[in-house]
Amino acid sequence: MTDINFGHINIKLAELMNKQNISISKLAFRSETQRTQLKSYIHNDIQRVDLAVLARLCYALECDLNDLIEYIPPQDTHDS
Fold first, then answer.
1. How many domains does the chain have?
2. What are the HTH cro/C1-type domain coordinates in residue numbering (predicted)?
3. How confident is the model at residue 75 (pLDDT cuts 50, 70, 90)?
4. Is the pLDDT of residue 80 over 70?
5. Secondary structure letter of residue 3 according to DSSP
6. Residue 5: partners with Cβ closer than 8 Å, 6 or more residues away
7. Per-residue pLDDT reduced to its tens digit, 19-60
8. Parent domain of 14
9. Comparison of pLDDT for 21 and 1, the residue scoring more
10. Is residue 1 part of a domain?
11. Using an 8 Å Cβ cutoff, are 49 and 57 in contact?
12. The dihedral sign for the CA sequence 36, 42, 47, 49
């Protein structure tokens, strides 16, 4: 069976935090999210996205969901 590459989802939380100059502690407080959970999002080390966490992050960072996550399509490996 061939393993199909569908691309992946990139969470841009670290980028947003740097842009807004906000610490993980401050974001944890504002978003009412545990620091350990935030670290997983920062390092793109999550398997299942929690919509409530995304909503809290968007609220705390005053951003849109599109600012926080992006879809990276697979690289085309077929010869044309």
1. 1
2. 13-68
3. confident
4. no
5. -
6. 74, 75
7. 999 999 999 999 999 999 999 999 999 989 999 999 999 999
8. 8-65
9. 21
10. no
11. no
12. positive
SS3 (DSSP) at 41: helix
Query: What tokens were used for 24?
Result: 């993980």
Residue 79 has pLDDT above 60, yes or no: no
Contact 33, 53 (CB under 8 A): yes
Domain assignment present for 52: yes
At residue 58, the 3 state secondary structure works out as helix
CA distance 8 to 46: 12
Tell me the Ramachandran region of residue 7: left when phi exceeds 0, alpha when psi lies from -120 to 50, beta otherwise.
Answer: left
**CA 53, CA 55: separation in Å to the nearest integer?**
5
Asked if residue 24 belongs to a domain, the reply is: yes
Binned at pLDDT 50, 70 and 90, residue 70 comes out as very high
